[in-house]
DNA sequence: GCGACAG
DNA sequence: ATCTTGTCGC
């Protein structure tokens, strides 16, 4: 896929934070995703093993969820895990994977946050700037913000609030299971991102594209 | 200063 | 995220 190269990745933690402050104003998080025109949805995930990172992108039809393309990319893990700076750890290998992708998905679902981030630029938002296509952040645990208890039934949601600002939702994708934390990445908004993730989770807690990407990323070559 | 902290 | 077997439940 064609990528809009934005910057180099070899930055120190403090330089990375400064870059996020510069890029945050470019993130568009109030634009509805055109759910009626989606035909392809991609799931993005990265697995780390022995200093090596492997990225997987699985493109699936929507709403049938039939896999149409899977790409993998490997690289040495370049950056330590620092809460708030995940994109600088997974960005390099993801960039390589995106370049291998031939299909052009209508939207990308990421394993991690979108604007539900201290500086409102989690990995889904950050990579969205490179992709220039709609992206959604789907976290399994919270990075920042608070939410009120929500009902046990699948589909229940509660606003995620941080510093008086609504940054996403806690969404129950499976009855009685822990909620997922959904937020717009880039070129998306909270209501449509929430609806899309719910529609992409017909059977499991993880959205189908991310679930498959997670499985593929965890498969390292001997 | 203290606590919290995606993957 | 990763280290790791069996096991309780639908």
Produce the secondary structure layout.
Elements: H1 13-23, E1 40-49, E2 52-61, E3 67-76, H2 86-100, E4 107-111, H3 123-131, E5 135-139, E6 157-162, E7 165-171, E8 180-186, H4 190-199, H5 208-217
Parallel strand pairs: 1-4, 4-5
Antiparallel strand pairs: 1-2, 2-3, 5-8, 6-7, 7-8
The chain binds two DNA strands through strand 1 and helix 2.
Q: What is the averaged pLDDT score?
A: 97
What radius of gyration results from the CA coordinates?
16 Å
CATH homologous superfamily classification: archaeoglobus fulgidus dsm 4304 superfamily
Q: Which word captures the global form?
A: globular
Strand content: 25-35%
CATH class: Alpha Beta
Query: How far is the first residue's CA from the last residue's CA?
Result: 27 Å
Strand order of the largest sheet: 3-2-1-4-5-8-7-6
Helix content: 10-25%
CATH architecture label:
2-Layer Sandwich
Low-confidence stretches at least 5 residues in length (pLDDT < 50)?
none
Function: DNA repair enzyme involved in the repair of deaminated bases. Selectively cleaves double-stranded DNA at the second phosphodiester bond 3' to a deoxyinosine leaving behind the intact lesion on the nicked DNA.
GO molecular function, one term: deoxyribonuclease V activity
Catalytic activity: Endonucleolytic cleavage at apurinic or apyrimidinic sites to products with a 5'-phosphate
Enzyme class: hydrolase
């Amino acid at each position: 896929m064609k990528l809009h190269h934005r910057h180099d990745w070899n930055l120190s933690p403090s330089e990375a934070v400064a870059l996020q402050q510069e890029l945050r104003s470019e993130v568009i998080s109030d634009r509805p995703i055109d759910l009626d025109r989606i035909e392809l949805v991609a799931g993005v995930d990265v697995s780390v093993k022995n200093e090596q990172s492997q990225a997987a992108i699985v493109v699936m039809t929507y709403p049938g969820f039939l896999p149409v393309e899977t790409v993998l990319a490997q690289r040495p893990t370049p950056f330590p895990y620092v809460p708030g700076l995940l994109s600088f750890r997974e960005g390099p290998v993801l960039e390589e994977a995106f370049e291998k992708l031939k299909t052009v998905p209508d939207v990308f679902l990421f394993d991690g946050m979108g604007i539900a981030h201290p500086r409102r630029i989690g990995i889904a938002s950050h990579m969205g700037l490179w992709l220039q296509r709609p992206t959604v952040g789907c976290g399994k645990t919270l990075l920042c913000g608070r939410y009120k208890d929500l009902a046990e039934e699948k589909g229940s949601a509660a606003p995620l609030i941080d510093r008086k600002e609504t940054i996403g939702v806690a969404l129950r994708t499976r009855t009685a299971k822990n909620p997922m934390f959904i937020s717009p990445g880039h070129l998306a908004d909270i209501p449509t991102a929430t609806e899309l993730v719910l529609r992409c989770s017909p059977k499991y807690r993880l959205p189908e594209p991310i679930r498959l990407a997670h499985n593929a990323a965890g498969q390292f070559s001997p």
